[in-house]
Amino acid sequence: MAGGPGGVAVVTDSTADLPNEVAERLGLRVVPMSVTFGTTTEVSRVTMSDEEFYARLATTTALPTTAQPNPHWFIEGWQDAADDGCGAVVSLHVSRELSGTVSQAQRLADRAAVPVTVVDSRQVAGGLALMAVAAQRVAADGGPVSRVVAAAHAVGEVVVNEMVVDTMEYLRKGGRVSGAAATLGRALRVRPILGVREGRMEPVGRARTIRAGIERMVDAIEEQHARTPLAIVVTHGLAPDAADLALERVGERLVVDSSLVTVFGPVLGTHAGPGAVAIAAAPADLVGSLDG
Fold first, then answer.
1. pLDDT band at 201 (very low <50, low <70, confident <90, very high)
2. How would you classify the pairing of strands 116-120 and 88-93?
3. Which one, of 73, 74, 68, 124, lies nearest residue 95 by Cα?
4. Going by DSSP bridges, is the β-strand pair 40-43/34-37 parallel, antiparallel, or unpaired?
């Protein structure tokens, strides 16, 4: 198992949107985040599945709120690593620009049973997932903390991570776009394309259809990584047909070494809404295999 006796354990959070079985297979530990509908708080992929979340999202009038992990989950994740005999932890989390998770981890790190190095990924979703897999690969090979952190940063420097949303309503409800912009978007049937830039989600384009948005995202990957064997993560808001199309177009236009299709959990799903699809890509020689 990765992060064995005396080794380094890699801990990330649920905004990486790695399926539980994939995280377990790779040896990654995941700190879950929570989502609150009214007065009811659920823990992502612990007390609420992705399917249950989207079903609830479709029927609620007010946008749910999301929160950084409970301190208990950090401490438990780090303690689990210590109990497995790991001598150190690299705790790699969603961008500080998007969440207080990194700050929370830094405040708690001195309570861990083993030394914890907290890393701001400056990424989210598939970008964070690719960084975590890269870090885990080095940890599994017995690499020290410095090499594990360097592996994550190497991916973070070159990863392309973009998303197209099917509706602007959830961005409007969350205050990410104005009501006027959302109304204009509906009238023009414009779907915004967002990309991770300097740790933030920024508008990078727009498309009339999800298919066109996917093509624009593949263009961006091809511009940076043409002819490079890639590790690809496609994340979607319960839109399997769009995810299949994204994977198909990536496979037709790029060199894919390994790939993973997963679902936006409550944190990004709350703001992106159903129908969104994202593609994250980084060189396979930096990431390693997504197949474990």
1. confident
2. parallel
3. 124
4. antiparallel
